[in-house]
Model the fold of this input.
Amino acid sequence: MLFKKRLLIIDSSDSARTILFKELLTNLPDIDIIACGTAKEALTATKRFNFEIITTGLSLPDMGGQEMITEIRKQQKNVDTPIFVVSGDTHTHIINTDEDSTASAITAYFDKAEGHKALVDFICNFLGKDNTIAAKILYVDQSATSAAITSSILEKNNFNFLHVKTGEMALNELRRDYDENKSCSYDVLITDLTLNMDMSGFELIQSVRRELDFDYQTLPILLMTVEPEENEKTDFTGIFGAGTNDFITKPISEEVLVERIINLINIKRQNEALQG
Done:
């Protein structure tokens, strides 16, 4: 893998931080674990690294936990990373549904009374027993050159993917997969904007959202498009209005592509974990 999986522990208590660090390291020996005691340390880490999971308390010596989480969500590397708040306040288990609130940036709350073992078990289940960033990706691109470049990146980073050339082929595969598994087993759909005259990337995404009724968490979608010319502007309204989770411009950067994929995998896993 280009990126080693990382976990971030944020807790002002030296003893609590040490206990969680040791228990996680015992259960996940191949994971890179970073432990921070302050918001300043945590924000420095989140600016530098993409994390698979972040755990934090709300009482920090230099910044409120909610304020820190808001700052983390502003960073591209961890905008979608699952954040679990460990709190002794039972009222925080009621998640505010206001999308503009800090609460909407928090994935879930854990009661301290449940102990570190429960949190460690949840993290292990969330990441998967095999402790790898495994993913099942459906990749749609009609360009032989673009497909060769992107496929080589996916292969190099050990992603399991199926490449098809048209939107119709992608929809047929998603229908087949749903019929076979009674759910969408693909973690991410990657599609180029330009496919063929019968169906564009936008139309494919719209069909996935409206016809198949796969929402943003059921099947996260990454759109690949060309860099706009100097006198052109990126059509953000069209990109996100069609139902895209994120987009990436060509020429493709391996680092950026892998980071975007990991972020989208986290969206899928976060949804599955919370659905039970």
Q: What stands out?
A: The chain has two domains: 6-127, 136-275.
